[in-house]
């Protein structure tokens, strides 16, 4: 890693605890709207539906509004909860509002950034929606660690599209040989980076079985041993 000067991070499921913050946000909303929904049952169905729809969103097969609506409609259908579209749209709007205000980070995230910041330039490349991701970075004060933040709405494309990585490298004014990508998504973060010749390390948050050729860690604190 001696040649590395810049490190690019994904945000959700890499530094920011998406699952915990999402659970808190939906809990607030269901309580506020007096919905008799068991949060554990809801999230059990929602998680896989959301992953599937985000994949379609990355592949440009659905747009942002369809993603926001369908992940709720499909989840309520699966758990057999009768709910109107009007309430679903209300939940979708409230979710975006409350989600960005949650501040739970993954274990070891802040310690890692404190360790890396004096040694490297740090940046973010995220597929998340701009208004939400900016809120997450500001409300957690993570923004102080990063020089460049690139999201898919700025770039006009989503990871793993090479254009978003190229844009981030250009804005950071760094050659790909001197940079590395760290993220949880094998498809979006790791293959996306490797396809343009940018080195990558998978933070295997989802405990997937990955090819042995892929650099990976199972806990963020392992990265301190690498860098």
Automatic annotation (TrEMBL):
Domain of life: Bacteria
Class of enzymatic activity (EC top level): hydrolase
SUPFAM superfamilies named in the record: HAD-like (SSF56784)
Keyword entries, A-Z: Hydrolase
Tagged with keyword Repressor: no
GO molecular function: 5'-nucleotidase activity
Transmembrane feature ranges: none
Assigned EC number: 3.1.3.5
Entry-linked NCBIfam families: HAD-SF-IA-v1, YjjG_YfnB
PANTHER family tied to this protein: PTHR47478, PYRIMIDINE 5'-NUCLEOTIDASE YJJG (PTHR47478:SF1)
Protein's name according to its UniProt entry: YjjG family noncanonical pyrimidine nucleotidase
Organism (species): Pseudofulvibacter geojedonensis
């Amino acid at each position: 890693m001696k040649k590395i000067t810049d490190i690019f991070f994904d945000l959700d499921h890499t530094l920011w605890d998406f699952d915990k913050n999402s659970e808190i946000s939906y809990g607030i909303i269901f309580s506020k709207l007096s919905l008799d929904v068991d949060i554990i049952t809801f999230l059990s169905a929602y998680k896989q539906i959301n992953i599937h729809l985000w994949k379609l969103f990355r592949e440009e097969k659905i747009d942002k509004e369809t993603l926001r609506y369908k992940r709720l409609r499909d989840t309520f259908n699966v758990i057999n909860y009768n709910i109107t579209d009007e309430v679903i749209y209300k939940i979708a709007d409230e979710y975006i509002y409350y989600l960005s205000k949650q501040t739970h980070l993954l274990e070891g995230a802040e310690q890692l950034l404190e360790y890396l910041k004096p040694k490297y330039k740090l940046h973010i490349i995220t597929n998340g929606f701009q208004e939400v991701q900016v809120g997450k970075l500001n409300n957690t004060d993570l923004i102080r660690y990063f020089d460049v933040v690139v999201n898919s709405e700025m770039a006009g494309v989503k990871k793993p599209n090479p254009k978003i990585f190229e844009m981030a490298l250009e804005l950071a004014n760094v050659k790909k040989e001197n940079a590395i990508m760290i993220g949880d998504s094998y498809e979006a973060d790791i293959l996306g980076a490797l396809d343009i010749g940018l080195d990558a390390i998978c933070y295997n948050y989802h405990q997937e079985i990955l090819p042995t050729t892929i650099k990976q860690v199972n806990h963020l604190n392992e990265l301190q041993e690498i860098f």
